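Researcher: Quick test of sequence recovery. Tokens follow.
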């Protein structure tokens, strides 16, 4: 019997992510920088044999989705000025 970890949107009826305790269940599709409050998602355990019923839901701790890093500048050029330089990208 293998235990599965399920993640639900609070009050949702279908898991939005399923995995294992060891590997985790990955929530995807959220915008960068999204702040998720404690309990906005809930987790349960199920077993793949159906011998046991699904566990009660427990709140998932809140998290903030990582921000996406801006791309690095490319094709840089510099033009000297009287007191420094003008740097351009792309």
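Model:
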């Amino acid at each position: 019997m293998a235990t599965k970890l399920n993640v639900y949107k609070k009050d949702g009826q279908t898991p939005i992510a399923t995995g294992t305790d060891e590997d985790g269940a990955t929530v995807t599709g959220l915008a960068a920088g999204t702040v998720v409050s404690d309990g906005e998602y809930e987790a349960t355990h199920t077993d793949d044999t159906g011998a046991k019923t699904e566990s009660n839901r427990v709140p998932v701790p809140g998290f903030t989705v990582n921000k996406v890093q801006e791309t690095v500048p490319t094709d840089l050029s510099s033009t000297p000025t009287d007191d420094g330089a003008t740097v351009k990208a792309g």
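The radius of gyration is 23 Å.
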